[in-house]
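Quick start: read one record
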Amino acid sequence: MDGMDPTQFLFSGNQVYVAELYERYLDDPHSVDHKWQDFFSSLADDARDLMGENRGASWAPSSAGVLNQGELETLSEQMAGGHVVQSGGQQPQMAAPNGRQVRDATLDSIRALMLIRSYRVRGHLKANLDPLSLKAPEEHPELDPMSYGFKEKDLDRPIFINYVLGLEQATMRDIMTVLEETYCGSIGVEFMHIQDPDEKSWIQERIERIHNQPEFTLMGKKAILNRLIETEGFEKFLDKKFTGTKRFGLDGGESLVPAMEQIFKRGSQLGVEEIVLGMAHRGRLNVLANVMGKPFQAIFHEFQGGSTKPEDVGGSGDVKYHLGSSSDRVFDGRSVHLSLTANPSHLECVNTVCLGKVRAKQRQKNDGDREKVMALLLHGDAAFAGQGLVPEAFDLSNLKGYKTGGTIHIVINNQIGFTTNPAHSRSSPYCSDVAKVVAAPIFHVNADDVEAVTHVARIATEYRQRFKKDAVIDMICYRRHGHNEGDEPMFTQPLMYKKIAAHPTTREIYGQRLVREGVMTQDELDAELANFENHLEQAFEGATSYKANKADWLDGKWAGLSIASGEDRRGLTGVPVDRLKEVGQALTHVPDNFNVNPKITRQLNAKAKMFETGEGIDWATGEALAFGTLLLEGHPVRLSGQDSERGTFSQRHSVITDQMSENKHTPLNNLRFGQAPFEVLNSPLSEAGVLGFEYGYSLAEPGMLVLWEAQFGDFANGAQVIIDQFISSGEAKWLRMCGLVMLLPHGYEGQGPEHSSARLERYLQLCAEDNMQVCNCTTPANYFHVLRRQMHRDFRKPLVLMTPKSLLRHKLAVSKLEEMGEGTTFHRVLWDEGDPGPDSKIRQVVLCSGKVYYDLQEERDKRGIKDVYILRLEQLYPYPQKALENELNRFPNAQIVWCQEEPKNMGSWTYIHEPLVEHLVDMGRSDTRVRYTGRSAAASPATGLAKRHVAEQAALVDDALTIIKPVARRGTAKKATPRSAPTRKAPVKKAAAKKSPAKKATAAKAPAKRAAAKKPATKTTSRAKSRK
């Protein structure tokens, strides 16, 4: 029995044996094994709860009496032999109870309580949940009184249960009736897996007090019917007018709409002011029309091929069942703002996007209790069980920096995924079992019982507002048509769809119920149906002339922002040096008596010296200065990612830990009084979920710099759907701007295939129509400016940054404080800071981006080469045409080479080649060819062998610095000979042979010359302007 679950005996089929053991224990505790003695005497945890129920329900009286009739007798007293009931209100005279009778009564009580508890745990297995009755609920032995020792003759014997279920005593037949009503009707509740006793007892009391039976007023019943008339009527009207057109209708799940309205109404009564909704395409049109209040004319206009955006608004648009909307609804005088988030067909991807929006809006409303803003997510059953983003969202639900105070989830469980049966798409009994990972209560409900659906929506809302945790409604329904209206479901589910064809609709079932109850007559019902159909006909007639007056964007928090225009878009990013030093003072100061790690102390001392001299500003310090200056200007900063507090490469240390107490100190939150807040979070190992969260946050908060950082750049592979469907295309499809920054460590340092490349090519492939920015910066100053630029322009665009690894501590990758001062700005193209010759002597210009610049510069200066100039493209997209043209005009006769570390089929080459050649043609250059230097095309991003990496790196650097005599070709550029071998000896010898003693001396003096040749980005001069 060591490690035994104290309540295991309740579910093991040994109930009678356990009860008999307990009987022996009551006679003589020493007659049972000492471990059973310990068990019966202590009854830990849930078993203690079981026996504690002898005290009765918390909401039932603990004692009772009848006026002038003395005390009521307990069941054991009534069963004790020889008791005498006296008349005249006198107390009964009782004979000494027989021991056997006491034991029988006690065993009856224990067995009854065991049965009651089994119903609380397993009652949902017998519930009437499937509207189609495809599979009858199976009898479960733990829900059978016979399994507990009761015989047919015992079912009418009174049993003392002391107000459990609200009854002091009851027959087993009565107990079973109550349990069946409460746990086995149209609602099945799973809540006994919840560990918190308060949450568990609240749900138990909430449903047992009323036997889990919904009660609605006549007005409430009519309101529910009206919602069903509108929901079903809309779907049928679309089917009639646009037969076979895809709409992903809600047919069969119409109870969703009254359930949502109940959440809004009850939520508003409990303090909810705003709800962010997320859903897939199933039922979206109905939600848009009958929940969000989108005009029927607008939706019909879209079916006719029109757009609901003004003609002067660009973008590609999206199909009608992916679009979002927002509106204000009023319930009992309380207004609730509803925001339906646009979503692609990639199911469940919108979940954490909504959570991020909720978190941002809670901050805007100072909603620290998380009562005013909540998320409502609608799911499909196959996606809820199958998509990994569902548990990722649950994982965020109670984490610092991500929690939103609970989400209500409604699963539109139509018992099929496209054409796949549940038995083939999940291994668990219910699609909702994944929610148990956070101990969320789950309310299974038959969607044909619309009152039951509305009832559990109310309970779920109350639970969320009380406990600030997730709740799940598993609304079991069906899909009247195929996956879309053009599908033929009889191909794959003929038996199911034969039943559906003969099955009445939810509106028909409820309408006839209200007629039987006398709530309304059949004529009144028919009139309601006819009135709504006429309303839709009028809207349909007006759809052809429908015209949108205003685009749904740049309102609210986005007011004052505009559409991006022009090419430079610098923004005022320079900062007075005094303010930079103010931030530096805070970065290098720690509180008194704070025990800092000695290594951190050395870093802080080195950082303090940077601010004293104004030189040697490294990457992490440039980043901290960007953050700190934005905070002083009133822009909050939120950095979220994997180990972002310290930084993957131990470079950031934005949070310092006391070595004795583990107390935390965040320098950027201690700049000055009144600054904006800085939030840095170590996220869970969840790329898609967390990136979606930060995207959602940035949608709601354009005034905050929101950043997501990957551990290594390739980790973003796990979030590709968020990048493809939201970040890169959200503005074009849905008119939703976003200023999110993605920090992706990238660079070839011999760390193998995975951790070398952030897959730069993927982001460049997504670039078009000015949708986002992709940069690969090489100096802390430029990194400082590109971050600040996000907040200092009148528009927002996503920024994808290839961030360095080895450059974090590279001796050349440093900046001066004055390069961040007033008048300085971001440079899209950076000039050569090494030791090239004069412009007139340059025979070859090497274009590159990122870390490879420093490899090229060091090797060139080491060799003393003077006729090769290296230009850096710090911004790859939007393509920096003007800035690059100004630089290339300095070298009209030079050959152009593109150099990259990545294989030829990766990196920037396939993106940059065509626009670069076109650019050279437009410039009128005589030689418009661009030679590629870099690794050969490869299946893997990088080698995992250190020696091979070094050889490949040396070869590509040598190739880029070698000037190859051009060979004339008709209309084409000469291509460098492909290099499959990692080394290339001949050009090296040739270059070495050209060296003169003077050049050797120059190479020896290169470090000093490099230091003298560095050009600070001080106030913008006419020449500097040409390079931006």
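The CA atoms of residues 65 and 71 lie 5 Å apart.
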